[in-house]
What does this fold into?
Amino acid sequence: MEKNDNTTGTVSGIIANLVVVDVDGPVGQNEICFIAHGEESLMAEVIKVTGNQAYVQVFESTRGLKPGSKVDFRGHLLEVTLGPGMLSRNYDGLQNDLDKMEGVFLKRGDYTDPLNREKKWSFKPLASKGDEVVAGDWLGEVEENGMPHRIMVPFKLEETYTVKSLVKEGDYTVDDEIAVIESKDGETISVTMVQKWPVKVPIKAFQEKPRPFRLLETGVRCIDTLNPITEGGTGFIPGPFGTGKTVLQHAISKQAEADIVIIAACGERANEVVEIFKEFPELDDPRTGKKLIERTTIIANTSNMPVAAREASVYTAMTLGEYYRSMGLKVLLMADSTSRWAQALREMSNRLEELPGPDAFPMDLSAIISNFYSRAGYVHLKNEKSGSITFIGTVSPAGGNLKEPVTENTRKAARCFYGLSQDRADSKRYPAIDPIDSYSKYLEYPELQKSLEKNMGEHWLDNVIKAKDVLLSGKEANEQINILGDDGVPIDFHDKFWKAELIDFVVLQQDAFDDIDASTPLERQKYMLEKVLSIVDTEFEFKNFEQVGDFFKRLINQLKQMNYSEFQSDKFNGFEKELGEMLQEHAVEVKQEEAV
It folds into this structure.
């Protein structure tokens, strides 16, 4: 780490993790400094500068720190180290490798190298001597866990350079020189496999960032069918404790159409993070046949780690995502839970004695969340390839209150809202995503509408809207039945209610622990939605409300058996044939396609 001898300082005040430093020279916003504390050096970040005083947030416990301690400013921002060897790693918010640390608790002032400097990587050149290159261009690649890891021209370079020399195919460490590039002025720069980048500055090594247009297949029906997220899209999952956020995150991580998965556990309770560490290495990867952890990086900051490091963890995770996106890879970034990140922002804002916003959160919370979410997206790279970061955050509102500031401000930034319902969770309707309150704004995008028409058929969107209408009218019918009683409403109210239940049980509910039902390909989702809607369109005749419930329960059971069977298998077709016979029992007029 380079040292800036010009600026030093002395601690003059301490308010928990906020330390006031009297400085003797220039310092910059978000600059990194180290505070001497005995034999330890505590890492901190400048968050406010007033005159000759710098307010710094310390990424460690400040217990025992006293005024008069010396501070050394480094002249650079909070950075991450980027290079091969980051997959399957468990990092903290400052990118310390947790697997290299000893003991149950992290030692204060103990920082580790995020990369393995001794390991040799098999390098294959992609550029040639004499090529003109700019920041982010690919010079070569190495293979990591079956994934191509591109070695790029450092992002910080702004000019056009010429490749002066490039090593031959062979085995090299990350610190070996693999290329020399030359500027127009004749200045030469040595390039290794490692580069550093400040976490709070977006990496913009791309040509353009169009609006997302392609559906990201997650295998989760209530997302893909009703409220799809796009590749490069943003979404968030708010929900009270116990509504299944973690299982849903695991399902999306495992099944989504992504090359790289990054999990940011930013301030969750330690036992929940331990579950991620224990369960992720055991999850089988349906895409590669290996373990999911082989293409996953975990950034962990539990709620008992320093609050400032919790804030850094989400930025560290996003920067790693942008790095992999620049390689032309599809990245899925999951943050759990951004409420804890917002609480870290609130804590530092309060210590700075800033004017508080709603619930004492910072006044600019909305802007901070929007800026962060805007770093996700689908991009066209300069070499005509494309990459993407799809970001899904979870929010843990206190008491399940979806009107609190973090949820409300995230709602403004994210395009998809997957609200988890306590009632659905209590009645074991998983995933507990509320089909009425949840939405995807991407369905309004003409780009996605065209893509869905092409890949899913011209009537797909009409069918999705129709399914939502049936669910809404079913909810209204259920409310009437609850008020007036089963025999106090006409039979068609029961018909509406049970047709909505049909969609709920067959399309929305899914068994994350069943080998077949856990993930549903889009072709099967389309087939089953059309099957269910054709039943909804069928007019039935019943003598009383008991007959309605009994009949639809049998239909639901039959369709669920189809969900648990291999698609288009003999077993599946057998259940479908029996379903056709059932429908004839009460159908006034059976549709032609339902005739068996």
